[in-house]
Amino acid sequence: MRCFLLRSLVFLGLWLVISGVSTSDLALGLAVAVIAAFASARLLPCTGVRLNPRACVEMALGLPFQIAVAGIEIARRALHPKLPLSPGFIEYTSHLPEGVSRNAFTALVSMQPGSVPIAGHKGGDILIHCLDDTRPVGAAVEADEAKLSRAFGLDRTRG
User: Fold this and answer.
1) Domain locations in the chain?
2) Is the pTM of this model over 0.90?
3) Nearest CA to 48 among 123, 104, 101, 120?
4) How far apart (Å, rounded) are the C-alpha atoms in residues 38 and 71?
């Protein structure tokens, strides 16, 4: 119930930001917020995840930099023919629970320069394609998992 109320408040807040604060539209905004909260609860049920606001902000602020670095690295490798490519695969075992947390993690891994998660298995193993498997991709992926675990308030050893 708490999750549903929180979602309703978030959707109502979005309604007020988009449409402006108007008492004549408030009833409609409240109805839309409740319907949106119901739909979101059906599509993405509430879990025991407790977001860490500070860690979420740190991740959000660092993500544009990570995306820029990845883009520059890929462009540099594409435009400089003498840079070595050593494509390959690494297998990484995630300690995050299946579902939203692991899906967010694989999306985050795709932001690593030249890395694309291509397969996941129930045990937590994720197969990652790398443009250069001589780089410390595993360490970067592990660092991303630690950041995401902190943002989601999860213990990485639970799995």
Assistant:
1) 2-43, 53-152
2) no
3) 101
4) 38
Distance in angstroms (rounded) separating the CA atoms of residues 39 and 76: 44
pLDDT tens digit at each of 159 positions of the chain: 778 888 899 999 999 898 888 888 888 989 999 999 999 888 877 776 677 889 989 988 988 988 898 889 888 887 887 877 888 898 999 888 888 888 888 988 888 888 889 887 667 788 999 888 788 888 889 999 999 999 888 865 544
Measure the CA dihedral 22/27/28/29, to 10°.
Answer: 70
Q: What is the DSSP letter of 86?
A: B
Distance between CA atoms of residues 77 and 79, nearest Å: 6
Q: How far apart are CA 149 and CA 137, in angstroms?
A: 18
